[in-house]
From TrEMBL:
SUPFAM superfamilies: Ribonuclease H-like
Organism whose genome encodes this protein: Streptomyces griseoincarnatus
Gene3D superfamilies cross-referenced by the UniProt entry: Ribonuclease H-like superfamily/Ribonuclease H
Protein's name according to its UniProt entry: DDE-type integrase/transposase/recombinase
PROSITE patterns given in the database record: INTEGRASE
Length: 124
C-alpha cells in the first residue's frame, strides 16, 4: 500500500498509529433489566435499537421499539441519518399505539454507540 501511495504522490497523516483515541464516557443509569428479558404482561419492557441499511441511494437508518412480552414491533421510524429525532419518532409511535404503564414501562437500549454492544441504558 505504501508503494502505491508513493507512486500516486499520496502521503499518510503523521502521527503514532499505536495511540488510541480516548472513548467518550457516557453517563448510565442502573441496569433495571439485569439481563432478564422475560416479562409476564404487555408494555412492561420495551427494547430499542437502530440499524443501518445500505441502499442504492445511500444509507438509511431504522429505529425500532419492540415489546418484549408480545415480541411485536410497537414503534418504528426510518430516516437518512441516525439522529435523536429518529428514535424520538419511534418512541412516540410506540406510546401512541400502546398504553405504557405509568412509572412501570422500562425502555431498554444500547448506549447509542454503534459497534459497542456491551453498554446499555434503560429509562422508566
Amino acid at each position: 500500500m505504501e508503494l502505491l501511495m508513493r507512486r500516486a504522490g499520496l502521503h499518510g497523516l503523521p502521527g503514532n498509529r499505536a495511540r488510541r483515541r480516548p472513548r467518550l464516557q457516557t453517563p448510565s443509569v442502573a441496569d433495571l433489566v439485569e439481563r432478564n428479558f422475560t416479562r409476564h404482561a404487555r408494555d412492561q419492557l420495551w427494547v430499542t435499537d437502530i440499524t443501518e441499511h445500505p441502499t442504492m441511494e445511500g444509507k438509511v437508518y431504522c429505529a425500532v421499539v419492540l415489546d418484549v412480552f408480545a415480541r411485536r414491533v410497537v414503534g418504528w421510524s426510518i430516516d437518512a441519518s441516525p439522529t435523536a429525532a429518529l428514535t424520538t419518532h419511534a418512541l412516540s409511535m410506540a406510546i401512541g399505539n400502546r398504553h405504557p404503564q405509568p412509572g412501570g414501562t422500562i425502555i431498554h437500549s444500547d448506549h447509542g454507540v454503534q459497534g459497542e454492544f456491551n453498554r446499555s441504558s434503560q429509562h422508566l
